[in-house]
Amino acid sequence: MSADRVLFDEPGPAGRRRIRIATGLTLLVLAGVVVLAVKQFSDHGQLTAERWTPFGQLSYVHFLWVGLQGTLIAAAVAALISVPAGALFGLMRISVHRPVRWVAGVYVELFRAVPLLLLIYAFLLGLPRFGINLPIFWKLVVPIAIVNTAVLAEVVRAGIGAVDKGQSEAGEAIGLRRGQVLRLIVLPQALRLLVPTLVTQLTTVLKDTTLGYVVSYPELMKQGNNLTVYTHLLIQTFLIIAVVYVLINFALSQLAHALDRRLARRRVTGGDAGAAGGALPADAVGDRVAPVGQLS
Amino acid sequence: MTSHLLRRTGPAAAAAALVTVALAGCGGSSGTPQPPGAAASSSGSGGSSYDAIVLGGPKADSAAISASAWAQAVQKQGYLRRGGTDTGPLFSLKDPATGKVTGFDAGLSQMLAHYITGKTDVANLEKLTITTVDTRETLLQNHSVDTVIATYTITPARAQKVDFAGPYYESGDAIMVKADNNSIKSVDDLHGKTVATESNSTAALALQKKVPDAKVTLFQTDPECVAAVQQGRVDAYVLDQGILVSDASTNNQVKVVGQPFTQEPYGIGLPKDQPDAKKFVNDFLQKIYADGSWAKLWKATIGTIVKGDAPQPPTIGSAPGS
Amino acid sequence: MDVVLSHFGYLLGGFLVTVELTVLGYVGALVLGTVLAVFRVGPITPLRVVGTVYVEFFRNIPLLALLILFVFGLPDVGLTFSLFSSAAICLALTGAAYVCESVRSGINAVPVGQAEAARAIGLSFSKVLRLVVLPQAFRTMVPPLVNVFIGMALGSSLAAAIGVAELTNRTQQLNLEYAQAVASFLVAGAFYVAMAFLGAGGGRWLERRTGRAVGGRR
C-alpha cells in the first residue's frame, strides 16, 4: 500500500462534491486548452488536407519506414555492443584487483560525464585527421555504444549491489569462491532485477540514434529532414516522426513493466514497492525515475 | 480502478488522439495529393526528360579510358562513387517518392558515370556518400569516394590537398531576407546583424571573412535557415545564390537581395595522387561544354528557377587552384 | 593547442551559455516537475491523467525532435521564442517529467505509517504533503534529482543542433576553421566533466546535510 493513496482520507459527501467540482473545472480548462491549440493550428493553415495527405502516399511512408529501419538497426547494434561491454565494466568495477577497478572506474566516470553530441562530433571531425575513417554507421553507433557501456556499467554495479548481502554470505559460508558466488548466486538474481532496466535503457539508445541527423546517417530524423527539404512540410513531418518515437518507446517501457512484474519474486517492503520498481535503490535506475546519463 | 486503467491506456490513447485531432482538419477529396511547392521545388526531377539529358551525354572511347587508371577503376566498378549531399535544392536533391537524387551536381556526376561506364540505369549510375565541408578532403584522400561533386568551391588552399577539374559553374553567395525588409540590400548592410547559414558550408567561412562582426547562427539544414528568416529569428540568410533563389521562388515571405558577393567557382574534387583523373575529367567537361549537354543540364535543373538561357560554361582552369 | 588557448575566451563564453541553459532548465524542471507530482498523487482524476500523459510523452520523445518542433514548428502556429529560450524551455519540459517521477518515488518511499499518522492527527492533504511527507521524501529524492541535473547539463549540448551558441556549438565552429580538433574537443569535454562532477559533488553534500531517513533502509 503506497503512501500516495493514504495522503487523504476517503472523502465524505462534502469532499466528494468538492472533488467533483474541481474535476469538472479541470476538464473545462483542459478542453479549452486543446480547443485553443487546434484552433491555432488550423488558423495557420497547418491542418489543411494538402499538408497531411502526402503522408498517405505509399512512397513517403516507405521513405520514412526506411528511416525507421535505420534507427532500429543502429539502436540494436549499439545495444548489442553495450550490454555485454557494460556488464563487463560493471563487474570490473567490483573486482578485487585495484588496477582493474581503477581502469573501469575512470572509463565509467568519464563517459557518463561527456555529452553524446560532443563525442559524435569528435568522431566525425576529429578522427579523420588521424586517418581513421569509419563508415557513417559506425560514426554514430560507436559513440552511442561507448556512452551506453558506461551507463550500463553503473546499472549492473547497482544491480549486483542490490542483491541481498545474505545471499553472497551464504554462498561463501558453504565454501564457494568469490567468482563462483558471483556466477552461481548473485548474477542470476541480479539479472532478474536488471532486465527491466536494460529494456528501459533501450529507449534511451533509441533516442540517442536521433543524433544520426548530425552525421547524415539515414535514420528516421534524417529521412524527415530529406522529406522536409523536398516538401517544406516541417511541422507535419516531424510531428509524425515524434509520435512514432513516442509510441515505440512507450511500448518498450510497457514491456519493461511487464518484465518487471513477471521476474521480480520478492519485493522489499518499506514503501518503495510502487515506482522504484523492485529492490533497486532509488539512485540506481529503477523505473526510469531519473535519466542515467544525459537527457536525450 | 478506472484511474489505473486510464493510466495504462491513457498515454497511448492521448497520443492517438493527438494524431486524430491533427488529421481531423483533412477530409474530403483533394485529388492527387501534391505537397505545396512541390512543383517548383522538384527542380531537376523532370523525370524522363532529365534522364534523357543525362543519358544523352557523350560516351568515352576506350583509348581515353585506358589512358587513365582512375577511369579504368570506375569502369570496372560499374558505378561512380560520389561524395556529396542529398538535401541541396537544385544541385543534389533526393526525391523521397522515388529515392532518386537529381540536380545539377547529381546530373554531372551521373553524366560522368555514364561517360565512363556506358550504363543506362540512371538511378544506379552513382553511389552517393554524404559528405560535409570537413569530411570531403579526407574521403578523397583515402579513396573512400572516387570524386566529390558538391558545390565544392575551388580554392588554392584546398588544391593543396585535392585536385580540381573544372570549374564547371560560377556561383556566389547571396543574401535572403524577409520580404518586407528593405534595410539590407547588400553584404555591407550585414554588419552587426544576425545572419543564419548552414553549419557545414563555405558561406559560413565567407561570412567570417567579409563581415566578421555579423552574428552568425549555424543551422543544420536549408529549411531551418529559411524558417529562421521567416520567423524573424535572424535578419538574413547567406548561402549559394541558386539555392536561395530556389527557396524564395516557393516562399513569398522571403526574397533574395543584392548581387552575389563572393566568387565561388565550383570544381570536381579528385584524388591528388591520381593526376590522370584530373585530365580525364577535364576532357569530359570540354566535351559536354562543346556538345551542349552542360547547357541542357543547366536548363533542366538550375534553369527551372533562374530565368533566361544557360550562361556560358566557365573556362576550364580559370579558377586559381584548378 | 595554441588555437584553443587563443580562443579560450570564445569557448568560455560557450560554457557560460551552457551553464545558463542548464540552470534555467533545471529550475524550470524542478518547479514544473513538483507540480506534476502533486497532480499525480492528488485526488482529481483528470489531473492524474494529465500528469501521466505528460510524463509518458516527455520521457519518450527524443529531445532533438522536441527541439526541432519547438524551434521550427511552433512559429508556424504563432508562437515564436528565441533560440535560447526554446532550448531552455525544452530542457525544462523534458526534465520536469523526470523530476515528477523522482518526487513521486520519493513520496512513495516515505513509510506509509508517516502519512497515516499525519492523517490520524487531522492534517489535510496539503499539510500532510508539506509538513510530513515531502521533507522526508526529499532525502530519497536527492540522488535521482542530481542525475536529472547532470543529464540536463549534458543534454544542453543538443541545443547546438538548433543553433544556440553554447559550448558544443562553439567547439564545432572552432573546428570548422582550424585543424586543432583534438585539443578543442578535449577542452570542451573537460568543461562538461567538470559540470558533472560539481553536480555529483553537490548532490553528495546535500545528502550528507539532510542525513538519512530514519524509517529508511540504510
Number of helices of chain C: 9
Please identify the structural class of chain B as seen in this structure. alpha/beta
Radius of gyration of CA atoms of chain C, rounded to a whole number: 20 Å
Contiguous uncertain segments of 5+ residues of chain C: 213-218
Number of strands of chain C: 0
Q: Largest interface, with Cβ-Cβ < 8 Å? A: A-C, 74 and 86 residues
CATH superfamily membership of the largest domain in chain B, which one?
Periplasmic binding protein-like II
What CATH first level of chain C would be assigned? Mainly Alpha
**Count of discrete domains of chain B:** 2
The CATH architecture of the largest domain in chain B comes to: 3-Layer(aba) Sandwich
Give an account of the 3D structure.
The complex is a heterotrimer of chains A (296), B (322) and C (218). With 296 residues, chain A is mainly alpha-helical. Chain A is built from eleven helices and no strands. In chain A, helix 3 packs across helix 6, helix 5 runs antiparallel to helix 6 and helix 6 packs across helix 8. The two termini of chain A are 33 Å apart. Chain B has 322 residues and is of the alpha/beta class. Chain B has 13 helices and 13 strands. Chain C has nine helices and no strands. The termini of chain C are far apart. The C terminus of chain C is likely disordered. The chains are: A mainly alpha (296), B alpha/beta (322), C mainly alpha (218). Chains in contact: A-B, A-C, B-C. At the A-C interface, helix 1, helix 5, helix 8 and helix 11 of A face helix 3, helix 4, helix 5, helix 6 and helix 7 of C.
